[in-house]
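ok here's Probable dual-specificity RNA methyltransferase RlmN, seq below lol
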Amino acid sequence: MEKTDIITRNKRETATRNPSIYSLTLEELQAWMVEQGEKPFRATQVYEWLYQKRVSSFSDMTNLPKALREKLDDHFVITTLKTLVQQTSQDGTMKFLFELHDGYSIETVLMRHDYGNSICVTTQVGCRIGCTFCASTLGGLKRHLEAGEIAAQVVKVQKALDEQGERVSSIVVMGIGEPFDNYDELIKFLKIVNHKKGLNIGARHITVSTSGIIPKIYQFADEGMQINFAISLHAPTTELRTKLMPINKAYPLPKLMEAVRYYIEKTGRRVTFEYGLFGGVNDQIEHAEQLAELIKGLKCHVNLIPVNYVPERNYVRTPREQIFAFERALKKHGINVTIRREQGHDIDAACGQLRAKERKEETR
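and the structure came out like this:
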């Protein structure tokens, strides 16, 4: 059977598939328990089994009555991800290509730092934003992930770390897809992994990045969450940003900066601007000067990113000395700036690159 036929069949099966229990917040699970005539504390027990003991079957939840375990099995599934490819870099970075229940695939990355283990999660199968430098958008958007499918990535990687006596200490929502294009499921995921009975990842150890969907930036500011917030900026002018990121046509840079100012004023929190450096495109001193002018006075930080080469794209890496010159130019204007440490350079490190290589039928 052809891969496309399998995906079509699995999509039909998905229509009658039970929802993922990982998609439920604790409050939603408590409400479900009450509807079923159960005590609310049963929801807490289930959460402990899912996120602390990390079982893969309701039958393993041995302190629940058998009838309740059967009821859970009738109503929900515990999302499982099939590992298609696992790559390990010399620096310890691990990249996973996971297959979902409908045959589509996603990427998840584990990065090791001095301060702990960080996991980069995916929020969509593909992406419709169309950034001209990104492999994630090849083939467009296939579908949104459910909150449970995002959470399952963390659980899956944590299970691998369990064998080494380690844990996930931070999360970055910067994998395949635009998180704010899947906003409701994103917020549910954040609440689930942040909850002390869930994976108990502190809000200030979670970072969400957006390419600039302006209405959702305002909404996110009003959520009152202590989650770290990043903007994929990549250009200091409207004209250049439109060339790199077509989303700038719908949400132009001046309006984006207004939304950023609102976020800072509303939350009092710092914003990180992610700035990928592309050789001969946006990496000249004049660009650094323009960037400094754009963000002056803001409570912010600039993260300079030496780009990974993507075969399907034409951009090249900025020379090392030019990266340092760009950094110096920003610092001269008092801008808080760092250069992102390169990780996974000897594997398919660029976001979406492993999926593009292994699953060509999805990214064509």
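fwiw Confidence is low (pLDDT under 50) at residues 9-15. kinda neat tbh
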